[in-house]
Design brief:
Strand order of the largest sheet of chain B: 1-2-3-6-5-4
Oligomer: heterodimer
Shape of chain A: elongated
Strand content of chain B: 25-35%
Strand content of chain A: 25-35%
CATH topology of the largest domain in chain A: Thrombin, subunit H
CATH topology of the largest domain in chain B: Thrombin, subunit H
Radius of gyration of chain B: 27 Å
Helix content of chain B: 10-25%
CATH class of the largest domain in chain B: Mainly Beta
Number of helices of chain B: 5
Distance between the termini of chain A: 97 Å
Number of domains of chain A: 3
Largest interface: A-B, 61 and 68 residues
Number of helices of chain A: 7
CATH architecture of the largest domain in chain A: Beta Barrel
Number of domains of chain B: 2
Number of strands of chain B: 20
CATH architecture of the largest domain in chain B: Beta Barrel
Largest sheet of chain A: 6 strands, antiparallel, barrel
Order of helices and strands of chain B: HHEEEEEEEEEEEEHEEEHEEHEEE
Radius of gyration of chain A: 27 Å
Strand order of the largest sheet of chain A: 1-2-3-6-5-4
CATH class of the largest domain in chain A: Mainly Beta
Largest sheet of chain B: 6 strands, antiparallel, barrel
């Protein structure tokens, strides 16, 4: 019995070594090939942890994306950056302080600059030559490369169903020099944001990238999002609830929007607020439609009167039409109708869907620019 | 045995000899085509895109006008203060969740070429006045809500259209746990569906009415399809939980616990729905005494009620419903919440030493009569649990 077993064991051992060498070989191939790891290797060193002011449910921590080698950081505009001292922790665990270069309340974005290294040895840098770290060298960063058409098309080449990876300081679970948390998911859809934070409507109503993955967590706003190739496609925005579904939205601000903000921020310094005056805007677009005010609880936007020869009249809107949507957005009541009109940009072509009896019609209205 | 090993060893040895060559060639290949792991990810991505493209024609956007949040009549039993009016009626069914229903767009799936659209009843809990549907080609058409199944959370719409494209459905027996599952919905508005990706998590859920998935389901895709990797529809996305109520299960949105109603269930109810008949939750129509540790007994029965008509008597112990052991009142709810009025359950009763099996056809809440006054009350052990009776 034992005699019979001897060669089998020997052969087993040889087999084992053969297998082992195969496994090692395949690992070498694997490391060269890679899956998500390639993108993550590129992503993780370019995201920093932020610490600042917090209050109540507002987290005093967040994430930021490094967008220049001298330490410019893109993040969301929130209570966090209202702190006296904004702390930045780089992936190497080095602490910096940061100052606000620009913040935009309409876009809810902010650009920070790392100013000096925080250390016990009082080793501070002069404010005019900031950010060069003699230890870590220049900061690894995502080149927004806003000038090139190719890069602005990058986020639009992303298609629903594509893999995406986000990295950030969600729930501040990454301590000190620990790398930020990675979450993978799928790009779900491109849509315009229509959301709120508690009772207030969220000011940003532009395009967002909806993510199939849970990124709507404290600390995650300001996380970088890349595609499977590790190309920067967007940044996780503030925590909001969709007005359309009443659910928490997992979304990212697309790179093109970030680019515009970044270019503006570099063009002129200082805090700025690009919020347009909505009241004066409303006056500019007069379609000539008078909406009925009768209704119980919900007042449906029925057309009560159309001014003769007005834009709406010429386009074919009639008395008693029920307005269903403006430029693809539902207008379930009069308030939503008014908000829909306010949202329009001057000169933007208007597409109104109306219901007349059982017929549903789409009406196009051309408006003049400002 | 020995021969086989030495054979496999030599094969392995050959592979080993080939490895340096393979590695070399792969390193060169790397510049043109990505490695195997990356290739797999890219393939999945590509498959997803093509499913989305293939399924798009069958998905419609539903927009509604009017309606309001359904009133939640939480069971206030026991919370009533002395002398206060006991209204609202504590026995009326609750909505099952405090989720606030938005009035944004929702999703539907074309069922047949003659204009029938299946969707989720969730999309109409606000009881809208008007419904319109936007087809994949951008046409807007008025739609009528024909009927609803409040148990399986399905609704049937009709639009005046012919020659609509109809989707391929996957037969239930072909669905496998672990296979890719891709959900789509137009709940965020616009023309392009939002896609979420997961796998099939379980095949038998909600007493056979549902298949479970970990793809994120939410009001964004309720009423939309859950497809396999070939674009065949596994089922229709709906909110569901192991409790009754129109909104039950919505609180699980985006959690990775999602349910879809497969083809066989939809087929089995659509013909009834087409006639305009809705499915409501079914009730037995009886009360049971509280605080009896020795089982669930019939304390009283509404007149008329399914229990009374099936021949149950006051004092009977309910031992089993459809083969499920009944130990407390909650078990009765669990055994019947997925049964619609008009559908049958088999109840095993114990009357003294006798065991009696009765066939009970459940009834709608509103079809139950009042509870008769009992001269000699059985439920002297406190307020009875009531099941569907007022």
């Amino acid at each position: 019995m034992i005699l019979h077993r001897q060669p089998r064991v020997a052969l087993g051992a040889r087999n084992f070594f053969l297998l082992l060498s195969l496994v090692i070989a395949s690992f070498a191939v694997r490391a060269a090939a890679g899956g998500f790891d390639q993108a993550i290797d590129r992503l993780q060193p370019r995201v920093v942890k932020l610490y600042g002011l917090g209050a109540g449910v507002q987290a005093g921590y967040g994430s930021g994306v490094v967008v220049s080698e001298d330490g410019l950081i893109l993040t969301v505009s929130s209570l966090l950056i209202d702190a006296k001292v904004i702390s930045v922790v780089t992936p190497e665990g080095v602490h910096y302080t940061a100052e606000i270069v620009r913040r935009d309340e309409k876009l809810q974005l902010a650009l920070l600059r790392m100013t000096k290294q925080k250390s016990d040895q009082n080793e501070t840098w002069p404010a005019d030559s900031p950010s060069f770290d003699p230890v870590a060298g220049l900061f690894p960063f995502f080149d927004l490369a806003c000038e090139s058409v190719a890069s602005s098309a990058q986020s639009s080449s992303l298609q629903p169903g594509d893999w995406i990876i986000a990295a950030g300081n969600a729930f501040k679970v990454a301590d000190g020099p620990e790398p930020v948390s990675i979450a993978h998911g799928v790009f779900s859809a491109r849509t315009r944001l229509d959301a709120r934070r508690r009772v207030n409507d969220f000011p940003y109503t532009g395009e967002v990238l909806i993510i199939d993955g849970i990124t709507s967590n404290p600390g995650a706003p300001g996380s970088a999002v890349v595609n499977i190739k590790g190309e920067f496609v967007g940044m996780i925005g503030r925590l909001v609830i969709s007005n359309q579904t009443h659910t928490h939205l997992n979304y990212a601000i697309p790179r093109s929007v970030l680019c515009n903000f970044f270019l503006q921020a570099q063009g002129e310094d200082g805090t700025n607020d690009s919020t347009r005056s909505r009241e004066s805007h409303e006056d500019r677009i007069d379609l000539g439609i008078k909406i009925s005010k009768t209704g119980y609880r919900t007042v449906l936007p029925y057309v009560e009167r159309v001014k003769r020869k007005s834009l709406a009249d010429l386009a074919g809107v009639r008395k008693d039409d029920l307005i269903l949507s403006i430029n693809g957005r539902n207008v379930p009541d009069v308030a939503a109708y008014k908000a829909g009109l306010n949202r329009l940009d001057p000169g933007e072509p208007i597409e109104i869907v109306i219901r007349r009896g059982r017929v549903i019609k789409t009406i196009f209205i051309e408006t003049k620019g400002p | 045995m020995f021969g086989r090993i030495s054979y496999s060893a030599s094969v392995l040895f050959l592979i080993f000899l080939l490895v340096p060559y393979t590695r070399h060639s792969m390193a060169i290949d790397d510049e043109r085509s990505p490695g195997t792991e990356m290739q797999l990810l890219l393939d999945t991505q590509r498959a997803c895109r093509s499913v989305l493209e293939a399924t798009r024609p069958y998905i419609v956007r539903i927009d509604t006008v009017g309606g309001a949040q359904p009133t939640t009549q939480i069971n206030t039993k026991g919370k009533e203060k002395e002398g206060e009016d006991p209204k609202p009626n504590p026995f009326r069914e609750s909505t099952g969740s405090k989720f606030i229903v938005a009035d944004g767009s929702t999703t539907g799936t074309i069922y047949s070429s003659d204009g029938y659209i299946v969707t989720s009843s969730f999309n109409f809990v606000r009881e809208p006045v008007l419904i319109s549907v936007t087809l994949a080609d951008g046409r807007h058409v008025a739609a009528d809500l024909i009927a609803r199944d409040q148990v399986r959370k399905i609704a049937l719409l009709k639009i005046e259209e012919d020659n609509l494209p109809t989707p391929p459905w996957k037969e239930r027996e072909d669905v496998r746990t672990g296979e890719w599952a891709i959900a789509m919905g137009l709940g965020l508005g616009g023309r392009q569906p939002a896609v979420t990706v997961g796998i099939v998590s379980a095949l038998q859920r909600m007493q056979g009415n549902a298949i479970q998935t970990d793809a994120k389901l939410s009001p964004v895709n309720y009423g939309g399809p859950l497809c396999d990797i070939e674009g065949k529809i596994i089922g229709l996305c709906v909110p569901m939980a192991q409790k009754p109520g129109e909104l039950a299960g919505v609180e699980f949105y985006d959690s990775g616990i999602g349910f879809v109603v497969p083809k066989d269930r939809i087929d089995s109810i659509v013909e009834t729905l087409k006639t305009g008949r809705s499915f409501h939750r079914g009730w037995l129509g009886m009360s049971t005494p509280r605080n009896r540790p020795d089982g669930v007994f019939v304390a009283n029965m509404a007149d008329p009620s399914p229990m009374r008509e099936a021949g149950a008597q006051i004092g009977d112990r309910i031992a089993e419903i459809d083969g499920r052991k009944i130990k407390n009142f909650g078990h009765i709810i669990k055994a019947t919440y997925m049964i619609a009025a008009g559908e049958d359950v088999e109840i095993l009763l114990e009357r003294g030493d006798e065991e009696i099996t009765i066939q009970v056809t459940l009834a709608r809440n509103i079809d139950l009569g009042p509870l008769p006054e009992l001269s000699d009350s059985v439920d002297d052990a406190g307020t009875p649990n009531r099941e569907g009776v007022e």
